[in-house]
Amino acid sequence: QEEALKVVRAHQPDLIVWDTALTCWPPRGPKGEDDNADAAHTATYLRYLMTEVQPYPATNLILKHAKAQLFTPPGAASPDPDLRGAKSWKGLADSVLFLRRSKGAPRLETINNRSIKLSDTHLFALKGRAFGFHHEWKIKPTSTGSGLLLEATAV
Predict the structure, then answer these.
(1) Neighbours of 42 (CB within 10 A)
(2) pLDDT per position in the chain (155 positions), as tens?
(3) SS3 string of the chain?
(4) pLDDT at 72
(5) From the CB of residue 95, how many other CB atoms can be counted at a distance below 10 Å?
(6) Strand ordering across the sheet containing 95-101
(7) How many CB atoms lie within 10 A of CB 62?
(8) In this predicted structure, what is the pLDDT of residue 12?
């Protein structure tokens, strides 16, 4: 915690990305990543770090893994996505977004003379406040030869 506070105070970032919550803030208790009290304590501290940026608070982007989806029988509805671990992360967040790769094989494209595989993705909200993100978006990455262009269309 001390190191994170030093970095935030020194650099005054507009955006703080935690990749992933579990890696950056390991659970302290015996319940592991399912410990709601521990997750709530961590989330409260991350909100405090936001306020250390002046004159406006920073934005926290906290990456978490989705709960592994169990096998869905043919013809059955897919289960709704959810976060893995403590549910207090979802309750304390202003928005919860999911990024899911589209079905199908990735496309092979070239960037800076290197072949890479690109897949379309869908970005959608599980939770959003009144001012938040409410639509599903399809994101199609395309090579420009030297970089990526991300084309987003509302679904």
Answers:
(1) 24
(2) 889 999 999 999 999 999 888 888 888 878 888 999 999 999 999 999 999 999 999 999 998 888 766 555 566 666 677 888 898 988 888 888 888 888 889 999 988 889 999 999 988 888 877 666 777 889 999 998 888 899 999 88
(3) CHHHHHHHHHHCCCEEEEECHHHHCCCCCCCHHHCHHHHHHHHHHHHHHHHCCCCCCCEEEEECCECCCCCCCCCCCCCCCCECCCCHHHHHCCEEEEEEECCCCCEEEEECCEEEEECCEEEEEEEECCCCCCCCEEEEEEECCCCEEEEEEEC
(4) 57
(5) 13
(6) 95-101, 121-128, 137-143, 148-154
(7) 19
(8) 96
**Residues 22, 65 contacting (CB under 8 angstroms):** yes
Taken as a whole, the chain contains a residue count of 155
Query: What are the angstrom distances between the C-alpha of 43 and each of 37, 40, 49, 67, 104?
Result: 10, 5, 10, 19, 36
CA 45/CA 148 separation, integer angstroms: 35
Model's pTM, two decimal places?
Answer: 0.72
**Residue type present at position 134:** H
Measured distance CA(22)–CA(33) in Å, rounded: 7
Q: How far apart are CA 86 and CA 35, in angstroms?
A: 6
